[in-house]
């Protein structure tokens, strides 16, 4: 089948490519993923009320089991990408398929039927795996390789990495972190039909934007290897041996694993922390303030990080950043119920997290270039599959751990009532205490009251550790790992040697 051609033809990265292919194109799928990362578990616990299902086992076990499946599909997808040979590259063609699959499966996640607990559980498991283990795996693998495969030019690659991350920050730091808690969540509450409508719209938006990413990206590194008629036919186990015997790849994976554990648990805990520890349920202010303070440094970072990284090195700037990251998290943990101190701590922490946010993929691409110099092979798909396995596995594992801790600590989900007297009766019959006086709760547009409870101290401790405590320790660990990750040393010389090899290969092929 003949694929539509890229609209990018230049040998060098263009402004149009940056803005349309790397900034705007991925926005739809990344927005959907950002919403799911923050609110899908809330939908399961608060809207579907699945926390007590099967004694709390379901929401603990199913995410972990699902991520085992996801890990397998990531390995398969990595092999598929490495063996894909088209004029449009090896990763970009899969963006076309994901443009359809991501919206469809995103909608299925929320259209859980009103039926028995068993039917709900089956639907949740199937839809979750169709999205994460299939559709989003295809998108994320192909999208993730766009920066490493776009160019070997370190400056251009760094610029693309920054543009790529701006999109992520815009989706998670502005829309999901600001608009959702201030406007959307108070409006939809725990109304299932409103959730389905909202998520259907967000899912559909991903279709045209993902197509834009396909048309405005170009795999120059893949084309370079194709011109030299180089093929990668190494068996999977040999590819894994190459990856896991290289010092820099091992350090990179360890770095990403530890960072993802802390970041994932923080993302899951954000809504709960703002709803129960620092503020009240969907008050529209607390989460907005925390997110604004976190988002301001990300805006500054667009202009500051890459110049600093070019001057002092990506590794060095990131390492210093994580020292601030740990300090900021510690301030938040010590003063976890003090809004002013938490905001100060969040500002310091997010200043420290800037380098990691904006230059990680460029540093990962440096490791791939080093590996190619060392082995004379490009195994981008296999390398990215391990990266994605870490990303998706930790989401499942940390979600399971968080839900298990909530269940064991005695988490009490909100409930809805039509009148204040009905709500008072429910509270009295269960021995619960409402966060705020019932008469002060603002009803939804249809008059339904959403009542949130005061959580036990054990629940608040779990939530606080998830959101602000764990990253004190992960920040320190990341500083240690980065100290040894000096892959940038001699990289220009290695890239020049790689280019010379390709040119020699092309000459040999032309003479043959």
Please give a handful of descriptors for the protein shown.
mainly alpha; two-stranded antiparallel sheet; 19 helices; 2 strands
Secondary-structure blueprint:
Elements: H1 15-24, H2 27-47, H3 58-82, H4 92-108, H5 117-144, H6 146-150, H7 154-188, H8 192-215, H9 220-227, H10 236-244, H11 247-278, H12 286-312, H13 314-334, H14 339-352, H15 354-375, H16 380-409, E1 415-417, H17 420-430, E2 449-451, H18 457-483, H19 491-511
Antiparallel strand pairs: 1-2
Low-confidence spans: none
What is the percent of helical residues? over 70%
- Overall pLDDT, averaged? 88
Q: Strand order, main sheet: write it out.
A: 1-2
Strand content: under 5%
Number of beta strands? 2
Overall body shape: globular
Gap between N and C termini: 30 Å
Encode the helix/strand succession as letters: HHHHHHHHHHHHHHHHEHEHH
> How many helices in DSSP terms?
19
Return Rg in Å.
24 Å
Class derived from helix and strand content: mainly alpha
């Amino acid at each position: 089948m003949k694929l539509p051609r890229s609209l990018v033809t230049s040998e060098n990265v263009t402004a149009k490519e940056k803005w349309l292919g790397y900034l705007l194109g991925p926005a739809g799928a990344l927005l959907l993923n950002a919403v799911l990362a923050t609110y899908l578990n809330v939908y399961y616990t608060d809207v579907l009320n699945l926390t007590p299902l099967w004694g709390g086992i379901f929401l603990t076990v199913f995410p972990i089991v699902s991520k085992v499946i996801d890990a397998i599909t990531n390995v398969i997808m990595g092999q598929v990408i490495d063996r894909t040979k088209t004029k449009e590259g090896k990763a970009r063609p899969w963006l076309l398929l994901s443009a359809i699959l991501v919206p469809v499966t995103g909608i299925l996640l929320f259209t859980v039927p009103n039926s028995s607990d068993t039917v709900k559980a089956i639907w949740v498991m199937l839809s979750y795996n169709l999205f994460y283990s299939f559709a989003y795996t295809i998108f994320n693998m192909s999208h993730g390789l766009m920066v490493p495969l776009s160019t070997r030019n370190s400056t251009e690659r760094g610029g693309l990495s920054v543009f790529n991350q701006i999109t992520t920050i815009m989706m998670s730091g502005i829309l999901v972190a600001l608009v959702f808690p201030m406007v959307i969540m108070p409006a939809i509450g725990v109304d299932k039909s409103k959730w389905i409508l909202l998520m259907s719209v967000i899912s559909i938006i991903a279709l045209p934007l993902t197509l834009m990413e396909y048309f405005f990206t170009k795999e120059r590194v893949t084309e370079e290897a194709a011109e030299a008629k180089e093929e990668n036919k190494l068996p999977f186990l040999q590819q894994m041996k190459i990856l896991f015997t290289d010092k820099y790849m091992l350090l990179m994976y360890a770095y990403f694993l530890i960072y993802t554990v802390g970041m994932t648990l923080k993302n899951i805990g954000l809504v709960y922390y703002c709803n129960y520890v620092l503020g009240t349920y969907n008050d529209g202010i607390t989460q907005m303030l925390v997110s604004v303070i976190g988002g301001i440094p990300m805006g500054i970072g667009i202009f500051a990080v890459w110049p600093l990284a070019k001057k002092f090195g990506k590794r060095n700037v990131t390492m210093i950043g994580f020292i601030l990251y740990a300090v900021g998290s510690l301030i938040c943990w010590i003063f976890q119920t003090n809004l002013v101190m938490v905001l100060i701590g969040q500002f310091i922490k997010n200043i420290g997290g800037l380098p990691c946010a904006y230059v990680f993929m460029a540093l990962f691409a440096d490791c791939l270039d080093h590996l190619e110099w060392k082995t004379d092979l490009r195994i981008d798909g296999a390398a990215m599959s391990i990266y994605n396995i870490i990303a998706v596995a930790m989401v499942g594992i940390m979600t399971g751990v968080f839900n298990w801790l909530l269940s064991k600590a005695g988490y009490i989900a909100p409930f809805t009532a039509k009148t204040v007297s009905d709500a008072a009766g429910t509270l009295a019959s269960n021995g619960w205490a409402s966060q705020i006086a019932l008469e002060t709760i603002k009803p939804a547009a249809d008059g339904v009251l959403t009542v949130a409870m005061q959580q036990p101290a054990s629940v608040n401790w779990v939530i606080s550790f998830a959101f602000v405590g764990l990253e004190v320790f992960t920040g320190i660990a990341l500083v240690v790992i980065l100290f040894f990750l000096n892959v940038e040393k001699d990289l220009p010389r290695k890239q020049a040697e790689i280019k010379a090899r390709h040119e020699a290969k092309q000459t040999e092929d032309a003479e043959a």
